[in-house]
Amino acid sequence: MVLLYLCGHSVLPRPNTMTTFDNLLLDLDAASGILTITLNRPTKLNALNSATISDIHGAMQQALDDDQVRGIILTGSGEKAFVAGADIAELSGLNDISGRCFAEQGQDAFCLIEESTKPVIAAVNGFALGGGAELAMACHLRVASENARFGQPEVNLGLIPGYGGTQRLAQLVGKGKALEMMLTGDPIKADEALRLGLVNHVVPQAELLSFCQQLLTRILSKAPLAVGLVIDCVNAYYDSERHGYQTEANSFSRCCGSDDFREGTSAFLDKRPASFTGN
């Protein structure tokens, strides 16, 4: 798939069938509606380059447009790295003009993940450094294997995080710790990431994907409209152009007028499982 990109403006065709991507593996479980997207550049430890960012953007847009997809798991191939960072060979050729385009391309793709009303879980199976940490932070939830490492080491290259890391890391772990991680470039282990709230769970490597599938299945058993609106309301808190409380009130009102609300309350009163439709 070709993604036409001009500094903040992307034009992506909406496919009717699931497209394949050069740097990703896509596996849709039709029974559960869970799409697993695996970054697949094992010889580069799944490092991000422009082509891979375009693939992520394309796969996410395709997932959002596909009614069969209800939730998404993002992970990396192999057992060493989720994403070890950006592709340094490509980075080394940037200047001030192309650097802005490079950053905005990644920000566009990662904002598409963050703003998805379909839940997205990062299954972090190893190193999540630089752009890899930023990709994980764009997801709604993060589950790490015990060997995972997180870091923003861009200062070692004379750079700063460019895919939203300066914003999301501070939101997740607080200003002081975020500054320490970005100013020193030092990585942290999975257990510290859990203590800081950077990840939701830490599990053995062999159990990572099954744990994420079980967690996502629990989420997908809830009312789809409510799930999507929860994500939107939480995002509104961090958006200076939106009023979080008003967004919440508007979304609560929308839920009250939905079929899912009537089904959920009826099922509770009838002491039976709810059957939600997303309407």
From TrEMBL:
The keyword Lyase applies. GO terms for biological process: fatty acid beta-oxidation. It comes from the Bacteria. GO terms for molecular function: isomerase activity; lyase activity. InterPro entries: ClpP/crotonase-like_dom_sf, Enoyl-CoA_hyd/isom_CS, Enoyl-CoA_hydra/iso, Enoyl-CoA_hydra_C. Keywords: Isomerase, Lyase. SUPFAM superfamilies: ClpP/crotonase. Belongs to the enoyl-CoA hydratase/isomerase family. This is Enoyl-CoA hydratase/isomerase. It comes from Hymenobacter roseosalivarius DSM 11622.
